[in-house]
Design a protein that fits this description.
alpha/beta, 2 domains, 309 residues, 11 helices, three-stranded mixed beta sheet, globular, Rossmann fold
Length: 309
């Protein structure tokens, strides 16, 4: 990532002056000669999806890098903001986006910020595509997309919504219905089905075509969850190369589980890759047929990508 970064005073900043990596100098409200200003940075990159494709795990790994600051949980700024011209301030001026040397209290030009929200991949914000909203703040930003077999992604999404969460109960429509009933509901009702978005997320080519209307191919890094699970160190090198980061050896902060998966030592009991009961073969066959045209289109759009589904 480019080290030639703008530093702009907060009270002199407007949205049109911002870009990925731009640093905002925020005045310390306290008085006194020993008080220093605060420095925050517009994210240099975003992890944008897709849902249930390993994005939380990737974000957690990236937070171990010494030159990155951010958060792994969903932020939902760009898919929910109503007036980005005014509200960019509450987004950028956040502890998660602070880029300050702890010794000198000056801006640390080596430190970059990021966040992860999977809804950015496929959703619109009040009728406006999310990439159009993001372009207003970070036109030169970089974006990381994780994908997986859309049939498996949908099933994992269904199982997630069946499980109880700390912040909510299982969603009723998922708790009371078998997976096959969800498929039937969507096949019969189409966009009127309450599960329509679950299926649409797997239309990867459609969503990526929207992103390519606002950003160049070189700004998108498309990865696959299977590769991240099987060869995480290779994937992390690819990510660091894409972002232009100084290489960090992730073997120093990871360990192998009894399931033969590499996980962060601090997250060994919070592994993102849940094991679900197998999908029935009939449901899988139906979904494979449904997803095949989208998979073909994805391959046509990005012939350099290697995937087996």
């Amino acid at each position: 990532m480019n080290q030639e970064r703008k530093i702009i005073n907060y009270h002199e900043t407007s949205l049109s002056q911002l870009d990925a990596g731009t640093i905002i100098r925020y005045p310390n409200p306290k008085n006194g000669e020993n008080n220093t200003d605060y420095y925050y940075a517009v994210p240099s990159f975003l992890i944008i999806g897709a849902m249930k494709c390993g994005t939380s795990e990737l974000a957690a790994w990236l937070l171990k890098h010494h030159h990155l600051n951010g958060l792994a949980r969903e932020w939902h700024f760009f898919d929910e903001v109503s007036d980005i011209q005014q509200e960019w301030k509450r987004y950028v001026i956040s502890p998660h986006f602070m880029v300050q040397d702890k010794k000198t209290h000056k801006a640390d030009l080596k430190l970059h910020t990021f966040e992860k929200t999977t809804e950015y991949f496929d959703k619109a914000n009040r009728g406006t595509l999310v990439p159009e909203v993001i372009q207003k703040m970070m036109p030169s930003g970089k974006f990381i997309i994780l994908l997986r077999n859309p049939t498996d992604r949908l099933y994992s999404h269904y199982k997630m919504n069946q499980r109880a969460k700390k912040i909510r109960s299982p969603l009723t429509g998922y708790k009371n219905n078998r997976f096959g009933e969800l498929i039937q509901d969507y096949f019969e009702k189409g966009e009127d089905s309450q599960y329509a978005r679950d299926f649409r997320i797997g239309h990867y080519a459609e969503h990526l075509s929207h992103w390519l209307n606002y950003f160049s191919r070189e700004q998108l890094l498309i990865l696959f969850m299977d590769d991240f699970k099987k060869h995480p160190f290779d994937v992390m090198k690819k990510v660091q190369d894409f972002l232009g980061l100084k290489y960090f050896n992730y073997s120093s902060v990871t360990e192998k589980t009894s399931q033969d998966l590499w996980v962060l030592k601090s997250r060994a009991t919070q592994n993102h890759y849940h094991s679900n009961a197998p999908m029935c073969s009939f449901d899988r066959q139906l979904l494979n047929v449904y997803n095949e045209p989208w998979n073909i289109r994805l391959k046509q759009m990005f012939p350099e990508l290697v995937f087996s589904w």
